[in-house]
Amino acid sequence: MGLDEIKIGGLGASRRRVEDNRFIRGKGNYIDDIVLPGMLHMEILRSPLAHARIKSIDATKAWAIPGVRLVLTGETMASRNLAWMPTLSYDTQAVLATDKVRFQGQEVACVVADDPYIAKDACEAIVVDYEPLPVIINPQQALAPNAPLIRDDKENQRDNVVFDWVVGDKDGTDKAFAKADVVSKLELHYPRSHPSPMETCGSIADFDRSTSKLTVYMTTQAPHIIRAAVALVAELPEHMIRIVSPDLGGGFGNKVPVYPGYVASILASILLERPVKWIEDKTGNLISTGFARDIYLRGEMALRKDGKILGVRMHTDSDHGAFFSDAQPSKFKIGLMHSAFACYDIPAAHLTARGVYTNKAPGGVAYRCSFRVTEAMFFQERMVQAAADDLGMDQAEFRRINFVRDDDFPHRTPFGFLTDSGQYGKCLDVGLEAIGYQDFLRQKADAAKKGRLLGIGISTMTEPLGAGNSREYDILGIKMFDSAELRVHLTGKAILRTGAKTQGQGHETTWAQIVAHELGIPADDVTVEEGDTDTAPFGMGTYASRSTPVAGAAVAMVSRKIRAKARKLAAHLLEVSEEDIEWELGRFYVRSSPDRGVTIQDCAMAAYTNVPDGLEPGLENNAYYDPPNLTWPFACYIATVEVDPETGVWDVLNMVAVDDCGVRINPMIVEGQIMGGLTEAYAMASMQFITFDSEGNCVGSNYMDYLLPTAWETPGFELHEVVTPCPHHPIGAKGVGECATVGGPAAFVNAVMDALKGTGVRNIDMPLLPDRVYEAITQRHDVSGAPPVKMDDT
Amino acid sequence: MSSLYVEVSPEPASDVPVRRVTITVNGEPRTADVEPRLLLAHLLRSGFGLTGTHTGCDTTNCGVCTVLFDGTPIKSCTMLAVQADGHEVLTVEGLAGASELHPIQEAFKDEHGLQCGFCTPGMMLTAKAFLEDNPDPTEDEVRWALSGNMCRCTGYQNIVKSVLAAAEMLRAKAGN
């Protein structure tokens, strides 16, 4: 018997979080909490117009304000070859505009001053003369003949198309449709949304001329990618760049891209040789950084009368704004959109995807999802519901007969992914049982007699989490593996560092649990550190639910390397050969006499005090982990709602979530992730969207216009679990942080559409605001596209 | 008077008015000369170094800057420092005693009521004032009381549980 794993905070322990000790005392160290000696403050002047030529910029009055140290314009940047920067998706983006502004909120100038109030005053003193140009706010306008060219800066750009991308089997799909008894069609819009962490973006650049070292404290989910990007953009040697990502007040994908503010603060620090802090305000964050979604779907499903799906066709038009600057794996232009329908056994599928430029802020960032998977799963589950309705079949039954069966793994999806594990039918059963499916259908029928509209929505999906493997996944050619480094000290305590970066996910707590599981060192004895590129091993950071699948696996692997060396030390201490030694949690013992043993702490002490001849001293190592495949968690979300036909208001009656994310390291934290994700799902379904008027003014530039749910609106959730361990992950875990955001929205929308089934309404695009629902009910028609904004509304 | 000095700007802008304010922060009177336009949140953070009070939305919506002002939760990002002259302010740094946590802090940790931690100080201070008024609330009452404080990570369910658990702890304490 080894140690009690739960007692030492190992796998499966709902260990209370280490990081909370500072957060509950107000002792977190977020970017704006950092103060360096001699630090100056930078503010950004943004464009009020969505598309305009810059005729002149006059900063004379700004320079004259006492306390102003520097004014940066596109011209300053251009003189140092920094007016444009490469994006993470092989495009370019303006740092400070030189020729034109291409979206409202684009960065035009920066002021550095003694304090942020002076810097803001000085921004207002800059006079910019703009010549307005015609504005494009959606793909339909962008693709129209003679549409104004947004990216006239790019030499070979003749239209507003970013990419045309195709995947799947066209002939096979055409044949499937030719054989179909029924073809179900649906057009959808997934509206523009913003991840909107509570903390905005910011940086403190600190260039030290005496050492030539540039240290940048920065709100980034991927510090090593930033270091590489800075090395390439600023042409500084990589060893002279240190990126430190401090405590992050949420990320959700918003803190993956490289933003102009970071670059400008770096140049300002180099020019002034003083630390320069830039803290974005909320409006700056909401109108210029990391937008998500904004994509149109034309979907078709070929069906046999008995309910079998024969084939799927999808075409998407995605609005990327003025610059294609979100991070996507280089091989997949529309991210992992083609992971759609992975949980269903479908013979053939074909996807065409077109990306376009518009006069909106850069968009397409993976907001709490793995590269466009949220859109893929939403489209999938809306199409599935529409197909079941078209066939007159029960929603649950239609899903069940099309699921990949438990004994069909590994399974090749219609677009070529390889799924490896799952118990889809079981998850659905658990969900239906928990929600009381049959009872609810009866209640619904009874309520209908009294004119009440009840509905139930199901969303089931498996999604690809944890990029890479590195054969298929890279960003700008940098392979998507991850890393961990473990140092065990003389007294058996340890420090662990990884290439990931926590933003609330609790890595400081959970990584130590993996070490405890592998080595029997109590989790409380392991410090976890991330985010400093001078000390952390190279990694691709935290997004796409990749931390546990990739960095977490590296933690297990490095712990095993440590254990292998500890075994040699144990053999030396026990004076037997290695082959005669057995391991139990926390202890090696002699097979033939189990009472004779040494603890992992004894081995650590020996590594520094009693090393056998020929063995290297010390007990530390690192591991780079390149996963053989993505992990494929499965989720079943079921919501019941009541829609008030008099007002269009809908209330969630119940929400059940069944998540199979494999082995759970810390169940408490996993459940926290799921509840947070469900809330963002509810937000997108019900209220959270950003739209634009015809002149490209962003409506949703602050929290009075951009609605996020509070504790009052957010429904309660009932969580259930099924565990199918990941066959290739060292501890059987799968990604989970994003499942609920990805799968959740369709459950809510399907529920409302189910409630409206008798009215002839087939679709209302998100957000399902009461006025849109009311319009659908009373006018008996679909409500599609982005909510329109009349000029006098803005 | 400290033996340290404060460097002043060689070119003080003569047209910038300055007012002296004295605010009792976490029980200790603090005096500062401030521009009338300085926000209370910025005085607390940059002036007094109390960085547990965060700034989020600038529009009184998100609540990460919540502090207790004479015992009432207010959004310190839209109150001027001069308005706080002569008043008492409690920030998260004043919540715990020297050696022990406030029951609300304990409950937030125990019920996993936080993830990134950015909204947490404001949430806890709102909860403190609320529980003083209503020591035995229902779940709905907690949800309504917290509706001026936003969180993007937790989905609120565990925050509500934390506040209910803290209420129980506080009632048990008061009963002793």
Please provide a written account of the structure.
The complex is a heterodimer of chains A (about 800) and B (about 180). Chain A contains 19 helices and 34 strands. Chain A has about 800 residues and is α+β, with helices and mostly antiparallel strands. Chain A has three domains: about 20-25 and about 480-625, Aldehyde oxidase/xanthine dehydrogenase, molybdopterin binding domain (Aldehyde Oxidoreductase, domain 4, 2-Layer Sandwich), CATH 3.30.365.10; about 35-135 and about 200-250 and about 255-290, Aldehyde oxidase/xanthine dehydrogenase, a/b hammerhead (Aldehyde Oxidoreductase, domain 3), CATH 3.90.1170.50; about 370-465 and about 630-794, Aldehyde Oxidoreductase, domain 4. In chain A, a hairpin with a 5-residue loop joins strand 15 (about 290-305) and strand 16. Chain B contains five helices and five strands, in the order ββαβββαααα. Chain B has a five-stranded mixed sheet, with helices on both faces. Chain B is elongated. The chains are: A alpha+beta (about 800), B alpha+beta (about 180). Chains A and B meet through helix 1 and helix 17 of A and helix 2, helix 3, helix 4 and helix 5 of B.
Q: Which CATH C-level class of the largest domain in chain A is it?
A: Alpha Beta
Rg of chain B over CA atoms, rounded to whole Å, is 18 Å
- The tally of structural domains of chain B comes to 2
Helix content of chain A: 25-40%
What is the number of beta strands of chain A?
34
Low-confidence stretches of chain A: none
Which topology of the largest domain in chain B does CATH recognise? Ubiquitin-like (UB roll)
Judging from the principal axes of the Cα atoms, what is the shape of chain B?
A: elongated
| Whole-number count of domains of chain A | 3
Number of helices of chain B: 5
The CATH homologous superfamily name of the largest domain in chain A equals Aldehyde oxidase/xanthine dehydrogenase, molybdopterin binding domain
Explain the layout of strands and helices.
The complex is a heterodimer of chains A (794) and B (176).
Chain A: H1 20-23, E1 40-46, E2 52-58, H2 60-63, E3 68-73, H3 74-79, E4 84-86, E5 92-94, E6 100-101, E7 107-113, H4 116-124, E8 127-132, H5 139-142, E9 161-168, H6 170-179, E10 182-193, E11 202-208, E12 213-218, H7 223-233, E13 241-244, H8 260-272, E14 276-279, H9 282-288, E15 292-303, E16 309-319, E17 348-356, H10 373-391, H11 395-402, E18 411-412, E19 418-419, H12 424-435, H13 437-449, E20 453-462, E21 474-475, E22 478-479, E23 482-488, E24 494-498, H14 507-519, E25 526-530, H15 547-574, E26 581-584, E27 587-590, E28 593-599, H16 600-609, E29 620-625, E30 634-643, E31 650-660, H17 667-686, E32 691-692, E33 698-699, E34 718-721, H18 739-755, H19 770-779
Chain B: E1 19-25, E2 28-34, H1 40-47, E3 66-69, E4 72-75, E5 88-90, H2 103-110, H3 120-133, H4 139-145, H5 157-175
Helix pairs in contact in B: 2-5
